[in-house]
Amino acid sequence: MKDLIDDATPVAAAVDMDESSPAESHSAGLEGAVGCAEMAEVEALQSGEKRFNRRALLGAGLLSAAGIAAGVAAPAHGLAAPATQDTPVVPAMRSPRPTPRALTSGAAPDRPSMAILALNRMAFGPRPGDIDAFNALGNDDDARLQAYVEQQLNPQSIDDSAFEAYLALWNFQTLGKSLEQLWADHLKQKDVEWSYRRLPAWETERATFLRALYSQRQLNEVLADFWHNHFNAYGWDSWQQSTWVHYDRDVIRGNMLGNFRKMVGDVAKSPAMLFYLDNQSNEGGNPNENWARELFELHTLGSENYLGVIPTTNSGGLYEHPAPKGSDGWPAAYVDDDVYGATTSFTGWRTNTDTGIFNFEASRHFPYQKIVLGRTIPSQQGIQDGEIVLDILANHRGTATFVCRKLCRRLIGDNPPESVVQAAADVFYAARQADDQLKQVVRTILLSPEFRNTWGEKIKRPFDFACSVLRATQCNYDARSDAFFWWYNGMGQSLFGWRPPDGYPDVKEAWSSTMPMLQRWRFVNTMLGWKIGGEGEDKNNLRINFDGIMPANYATPEEVVDFWSIRLLGYQLPEHERTQIVEFMAYGRGTDTDLPADQITERIRYMVGLILMSPSFQWR
Prior knowledge:
single chain, 6 strands, two-stranded antiparallel ribbon
């Protein structure tokens, strides 16, 4: 851990103007970059005005469903036959993303050592020394994997004091503030700079990179990235940015090894999600379905369990859910009427605009009877209506399968075998009342045969890639550099920056087409030339330093390439990749002939760039 402190000392300057940085960053906090709309929202909050809905609401359908649930006689409307197992599933209301044309093709790469596999899946790639530390955990791969999984699933048992001391050197102001403090200081307070309003999001962004780069609790960071994506909220709107520390620290990180029902409940009551998906403006006389729809489609049952717009009344005008029954006797899938019933259940759930704390306003609640997934929710229960909906969804077998499939996709491969998905879903469902439910699920996935034996089915997303580059090269990273985030964001995965609610795509086709790969090249080239900057004597020193690392007796192109591929990847490049880089390093000479020292010095940085952009470095 001493290397961490030696290799990455914070610099004093907040922005390094010698980095050839763009004029401003998306996270620099300038009012002009935010726009008049967000300013108006803050002014509206301070003046007590209501916020307009983000999306149009299918009001007629919602009110009709609410009327049926309340026992009001309604005529049958285009009644469809109850769905069977053979009934075609209607696509989700959100249009699916087009599948980009991928560059990846050909035979899958050979599976690397267990250390490489584990450190690229449960961590953001190995730093020098990590592979040796992993291999010291046991006498064989099974013992090492078991030990590493248990270590990472119990983060408090890992001594991370060196990193915590290092993080403190950056003097972040907001990471320890309570929700009430964040609300008062960064949203309610008048006459402050916009950069101060968005400081909680800005500091969370910087701290996230620091943790991924230097914390020993690597699985924590992988899971935080996953759950931020699962419960996606755009972090840079005026309503989210000021309390983003709370969403990251208390809602996501506070629950990611705990209980899913508690987690989804904390998400539902957080100001970040209440404003992002407009439940803040969801009230009995003016319902807004945004939160309820995404709760079903993205957070719990998933679009794979959505049957579409199918009536929930039979030929006699009585309630009858069209979905086939699950093993528990309740509907195994959902339809739009379930979303409408849930929407009215969450009316009145809002943030207190004086304190930022969750508050239920009974006067804005739709108090009458609802029906959701076959369950009748009696009238006049107030806040319990929404709690019952969360109970139904968190305890649904379809939620177990959907969430576990996404976890397996993140931790194993783009198309995880159904065997591991169902094994994890069984644990999710059986442990749904346990405080450590999600820890049990993650353990099941990480110790599965499918985890051990799958490789070459997933590439690093930009955040994974950037962190693995900086970790492998032991970059002297500057967390205050806005220029770095311009370079990083160009790859397409800015932290907390995905505006739609479905989160960044998590399949290789989305990140392996021409433009994403070109942006990776640009990022690597920029990192290899990144200087300290500022006004000190070291301003022209590079942040990635290769001096004195390779033994002096490594002089042939083959020796140089093998040394650096093992240092950066943990193993020698496969021959078809190695050959091209060796020939580049030889520059017309023999590949087993000693190179002049000045030629090694001149070309080594470019050679490292080729290794970092090799197919082998992209896999995870």
